[in-house]
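Re: the 176-residue chain
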Amino acid sequence: MSAESPGAPDAPEPAPSAAHPRFAEALQQLGLGDLLPRVRRFPEQTRTAAEAAAAIGCELSEICKSLIFAADGVPVLVLMDGSSRVDLDLVRQELGAEKVTRAKADVVRETTGYAIGGVPPFGHATRTRVLADRSLLDHDLVWAAAGTPYAVFPMAPKTLIAQAGGTLVDVRETAE
């Protein structure tokens, strides 16, 4: 409120975003505020890649999963296309780690600030190493979680990987 005109707002309030408030703030800080209107919110949860793809109406591989693993106890984020699984042995080799396991829910929340099913590819509470599987580059656009299991946003994979500070790797499981 302005002191000169009580009751009149100084500026119009921005429309609330469908993104998690922390992620919306991260987008603004990264100069990506123009993405906020493109965030899509769904009435049903899209915790899994299949649920997200069905809600969006895209191919499963056009979903970018943000998965937290523990490499010798240290959290690492792996960005993977929605139709693929992460090969933990390839992640272990890539990181030179002794052991890689899926991180527990409390570690995911502590590391990223978000719950499993809503972890975005960047804008996390702490800085972690990021591995991005090359399969993401097979698409012009991918969809990723916007901080909640109900919201996603679109972005070109190269831009998404760059914003996440990701290293391109091949850590996708292959059929033997």
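The helical segments are 21-29, 49-56, 88-95, 105-112, 157-164.
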